[in-house]
Amino acid sequence: MKNILHVTSSPRGDESISTQLGRAIVSELISKNPGSELVEIDLVNNPFPHLDGKQTTALRTPTDLLTEEQKQLLERSNEAVRQLFTADHIIISLPLHNFGIASVLKSWLDNVIRAGHTFSYSSEGPKGLLSGKKVHIAIATGGIYSDGPMAALDFAVPYLESIFKFIGITDFEVYRAEGLGIPALQEKALEKAIESIAV
Length: 199
Ligand SMILES: Cc1cc2nc3c(=O)[nH]c(=O)nc-3n(C[C@H](O)[C@H](O)[C@H](O)COP(=O)(O)O)c2cc1C
Prior knowledge:
- The protein is α/β, with parallel strands linked by helices and 199 residues long.
- It has seven helices and seven strands.
- It has a single domain (3-195), classed as 3-Layer(aba) Sandwich (Rossmann fold).
- Strands 2-1-3-6-7 form a five-stranded parallel sheet, with helices on both faces. The chain has a two-stranded antiparallel sheet with strand order 4-5.
- The protein is globular and about 55 Å long.
- Bound molecules: flavin mononucleotide.
- Residues 10, 12, 16-19, 95-99, 140-143, 180-181 line the site of flavin mononucleotide.
- Flavin mononucleotide binds at residues 10, 12, 16-19, 95-99, 140-143, 180-181.
């Protein structure tokens, strides 16, 4: 039995290729680990607002110095951090938007990459506080970024790998449904990505 957290960030609902790919990873994990618990976070229908001044200050304030107002402001961020700590497997479904991650996913990251909670500063530099977890990326892209001339523009996946490593998660797998904007490739892109799933 495993705890599975599936985070989705495409505005395209059930049509979304990254969401479908993420669901296929979830299904595979559940079939390998019967009785697993699944938590789904839909960042489009339930987004974290972009950081404003109050939220930024609250996020950077040590817990014992928080005001009551700041504690309330941090409730949802705290819940998101707890969900990360509970999960054994974290599946991140993301559409590539303008060579980057969807902005709703960035807002969620801004609420879970937290000093004193998911990483700490030590004399040797920052240290990730999560361990024993695996991240599975389900990315959907119009072009091809795993290889060829566009590979130099593959910013989203290395960014995600770095940010999860920063909080201590080094077990990182990537599944790509790519070429969705290329007529000769789009039809089979999702099928091919699903076939490659190995959890
Ligand atoms: C606003 C927007 C920006 C996009 N930017 C890119 C891009 O930079 N590179 C790319 O390969 N595809 C890009 N695409 C295509 C999407 O990555 C592709 O349609 C993918 O299927 C989206 O994932 P989804 O099906 O999960 O929503 C973009 C699509 C949209 C709507």
